[in-house]
Amino acid sequence: MFKKILVPLDGSETSWHALEQAIVLGNKFDSELVVVNVIQPYNNAALLAVPFDYATINQGNSELEKIGDKVLGMAKEKVSAYAKGVEFILEVGHPSERILSVAKKTGCDAIVIGSRGLSGIAEFLLGSVSSKVSQYSTIPVLIVK
Amino acid sequence: MLNRILVSIDGSPLSFKALDFAMGLGKACGSEIIVLHVAVPFDLSKLHSYEMEKLEDDITERLKKKETAKEELTEGEKAKAGSSALEVAKKKAVEAGYKTIEFKEVVDTEPAKTIVKQATIMMAEAIVMGTSGLGLMSAALLGSVSAKVVTNAQCPVIIVK
To answer: Which of these, B3, B36, B78, B97, is most buried using a 10 Å CB contact count?
Structure first.
């Protein structure tokens, strides 16, 4: 129980709350933390039917990666005092899918996630990512408000 | 952070797993646990009831022993059918040797609302519950009750699988 806790971060307020809660829990259970940030590649060009070339898209994606690195950098500062091991992972793809696959890959036994993230058009109160994660995960999920 | 944990149980195996999980968590954090059972009257979604199954087993056993031939259910047995979820929970708490634990039963037609309300009244700092309980539709996905609790609760919610 709580040997390894996965904390998905997107840089939103609630995701920082989730990280704080995970640190509190982790201190009690001596658990390792896995902090993951998922960036969604820029693929709206097709949707808008704008003939973007690859250079533009790649530029957008590398910008996103920079933001992801920045979020992980902020996380690193916040967990600098943490005694046990912390792993930082930057993933590219569909958020809830990537979160669940990272949880499986790293062998986490709990997920601590914020109830809603950055996305504006999410489901009413519980965010779409957190609801998907809590539905499909095979390990206990702590949803932080 | 986790000084008071509310565990909601409905008698399903997963809800008892949630209780075990909460006791494990509570032991490490030294927290009080409130076990809440919301009894829903006339619940048609509860066609497959673990509680009734248990009661039936009891009766067939007694019939085998010929203790009761064709007797009606006594009041005590009727009450047992409803409260057996809490009885099992009490037994589990004793087995685990958990001291700071309370049990509460509330009768209401809306379990999700009641759980959220009770969590506020009892000043719980976290809610622990299973993904899906006894409802018929719930087996496929996140149960309707747990989904509602997650969206409406003021405190962190732990969903146990």
So the answer is: B36
